[in-house]
Structure formats: C-alpha cells, structure tokens
Amino acid sequence: MRIILLGPPGAGKGTQAKMLKERFGIPQVSTGDILRKAAQDNTELGRQAKILMDAGKLVQDDTVIGVIRGRIAQEDCRNGFVLDGFPRTIVQAEKLMDTLEDMDLSIDAVVDFVVDSQALINRLTGRRTCSDCGAMYHETSRPPKVRGVCDVCGASLYQREDDKEETIKKRLEIYQSETAPLKEFYQKQGNLKTIQGGGSAEEVFSRVCSKVT
What we know:
Layout: E1 2-6, H1 13-24, E2 28-30, H2 31-40, H3 44-54, H4 61-72, E3 81-84, H5 90-102, E4 109-114, H6 117-125, E5 127-130, E6 136-138, E7 157-158, H7 165-179, H8 182-189, E8 192-196, H9 201-212
Helix pairs in contact: 1-9, 2-3, 4-5, 6-7
C-alpha cells in the first residue's frame, strides 16, 4: 500500500500517517521530519532547509526528490509507505511520478484532508515540540503533564518558527497557490480521496480507512 497524504499545514497528516503506519505496518515518510533532522544535525542540507522552513518557504524540488528517492528505496518501504507532506507542487508531483515509474512503483491512493483555515491556525499555534526527542504536544488538545516539559524524555518544549501565526499564514498562502492544485492533478489520475479533517484523530482515521482499504 503506497499512499500520499495531502492537505494544508495543520490538517493532521502527520497524526494520520502515524496511525496508518501502526495499522498497516508501513513506514511514514515525512520530508519535514527528514529535513528538520538534517537541520538539527547541522548538515549542509539542513542549514539550507532551515533558512527556508523558518521563513515558511518550500525547499527546492530537486533536493526533496533526492531525499524521497533515497528513503523509499530502503528495505522497510518494500511493502509500501505513507508520504506525509510531499508532493507540494505540480512539478514535484510530476517528478515523483517519474521517479516511481523509474523504480517500477505506483501510488495506490491520494488522501486529501479538508479543514477550515481558522481551525488550522488554532491547531498550529498551539503546537509545542520537544527540543530533544521531537515528541509533539498541543497546549489545549494534547498538553504535557508538566507545562513546557516533555512527558517522554523530560526535555524542554518549544514553539517551532513555522508554527508561529505569521509564518502559518504564509504557509497557508503558499499551500493555496502551489499545493491545492494537486487535487486536480490527482483527480485526473483517478486516485484522489477527499476526507473531512474535523473531529477526533480516531474519527478521521476511520474515514481514511474506509477510503483506502
């Protein structure tokens, strides 16, 4: 099972990807996580990506495609994967399609999450990330046991630059202009599944499973 998750920032793609991983035993491939790890490790790719991500901009296509190809070529992706946060533009979608064809692979389903814009802003501005292990929390929907402290490792929590309101609004603008057209692209491919992203994670997951299984 090979799945792409589409939707604006804060739509719940990461949460649903993790749930799909647990249910079907296929890895979550998140370009954001890969690039943030590179930034944390202070690699050349990471330094370049961090400047763009902190400004709410997208990383160059060739860089991301290279990251994706390397990841899905790994053994744990043999039986499938969930692409979380990629592709984000028509050009990326076309390059991904070429890359998959070159690897003799194809996408089974593209799930598009639809969520109200103000709800997205509320979700993202409340997010907090562990400075050490990367665990995610939310000030209202999933707060840590101790404010500002990670339940998992005890490290401090912080608000990522790309979760601040000004940056979020820029990200949403970019999504509408560059990523939203992917719906039409995958609609023409015949594998687009539209999901209402409101409600609990479990409710959304039930809708996802009804569309992809």
